[in-house]
Design a protein that fits this description.
The protein has 248 residues and is α+β, with helices and mostly antiparallel strands. It has one domain (29-247): Gcn5-related N-acetyltransferase (GNAT) (Aminopeptidase, 3-Layer(aba) Sandwich). 29% of the residues lie in helices and 24% in strands. It is built from 6 helices and 7 strands. The protein has a 7-stranded mixed sheet, sandwiched between helices. Helix 2 packs across helix 3 (79-91). The longest helix has 18 residues, at 230-247. The model has no long low-confidence stretch (mean pLDDT 93).
Length: 248
């Protein structure tokens, strides 16, 4: 039993590029089961993000359309950066998961959607990031993807198709990203407040400048917090999400 301590831990070296692609079959390492039948509509399908299949097309879109990362906490422009992020900050964390968004009519990769801050003991999660590629923005894809994720998270395991039975799904975004706030509200999320100075941003991102002597020395921003909970889902939320999906 340790009776003293030091504070000099260094994490293991990052995996090599090949290791970042992961094993085959790819172990997603998520705390909950993946119900593919729940993650599929007539026009959109969500599948686990597999780097060997999806990383290179994602990088191509991020490079071609830098605005896709305007509201994210990332600034990726190379394949190694994306692979390292997926492996070290998503797959290594069983409480995080990334899904590839597919447009079923064209069979094209249309974006990504993720879950973060998932807690199995507390039956809660947060949707993010949500990135829809330019060719599919303003179409049914975004609403379908978020609606499918809500079905997956909030439906009970006894439903058909089954869900996870979570009690709370939250959504955070920059307060000035009004399209994101409105999109969440249309799908049934309720405004809960603003978390001040919630995110440290990479250099070059829009945000507020920190105080002199700040240890990160980088800009930051507030985050608006919205949520939809199990009682919301059971008292009209399910129908509202379905209506938005069908209308999109």
């Amino acid at each position: 039993m340790a009776k003293s301590f030091v504070n000099s831990y260094k994490p293991p070296a990052l995996p090599s590029l090949v290791e970042n692609y992961g094993p085959d079959p790819y172990d997603v390492n998520f705390v909950f089961p993946i119900h593919l039948s729940t993650l599929r509509s007539a026009r959109v399908e969500l599948t686990p993000f597999i780097p060997a299949l999806h990383a290179a097309p994602l990088v191509a879109q991020l490079v071609a359309a830098p605005a896709l990362q305007r509201w994210t906490g990332s600034a990726f422009s190379t394949l190694p950066e994306v692979l390292t992020y997926v492996e070290c900050f998503k797959r290594a964390d069983p409480n995080a998961m990334i899904f590839a968004v597919h447009d079923r009519p064209s069979r094209a990769l249309a974006g990504i959607i993720g879950l973060v801050r998932t807690s199995a003991p507390n039956l809660c999660t947060e949707i993010g990031p949500v990135i829809i590629f330019p060719a599919f923005q303003g179409t049914y894809v975004g609403a379908n993807a978020v609606g499918l994720m809500l079905n997956y998270c909030l439906e009970l395991p006894t439903a058909s198709p089954p869900g996870l039975g979570l009690r709370r799904v939250q959504w955070t975004t920059n307060p000035i990203n009004t399209p994101s706030v409105r999109a969440a509200q249309r799908l049934g999320f309720k405004m809960e407040g603003t978390m001040r100075w919630a995110v440290v941003l990479p250099d070059g991102k829009e945000g507020d400048q920190p105080r002199d002597g700040d240890p990160a020395g980088k800009p930051g921003n507030d985050s608006v917090l919205l949520a939809i909970c199990a009682d919301d889902w059971e008292t009209g939320g399910r129908e509202e999400a379905r209506l938005r999906i069908d209308r999109a």
